[in-house]
Amino acid sequence: MSDDLNMSMRKFLKQVGVTSQQAIEEAFRTADGTEGKEFEARVVLTVDGVDLEHVVTGTIKG
Asked: Which domain of life is it from (predicted)?
């Protein structure tokens, strides 16, 4: 793997992580009745031009 590809992926994934956390925090701040409940979460990552669809699932506890 080239250094350029590696750095580009790391930069993209950092942006995904930071902006996703901000979006989740905002959604929980504005939603009612989330405390103590568990919510199923899913992220679908696709990359145009290559055959990639990657799904990550998990649980977020309010």
From this structure: Bacteria
Please report which confidence band the pLDDT of residue 1 belongs to, taking 50, 70 and 90 as the band edges.
Answer: confident
- Provide the whole-model pTM: 0.86
State how far the alpha carbon of 38 is from the alpha carbons of 19, 20, 22, 55, 58, in Å.
21, 18, 18, 19, 10
> What residues form DSSP beta bridges with 4?
none
Contact by Cβ (8 Å): 62, 40: no
Q: What is 16-30 written as a DSSP string? A: HHHHHHHHHHHHHHH
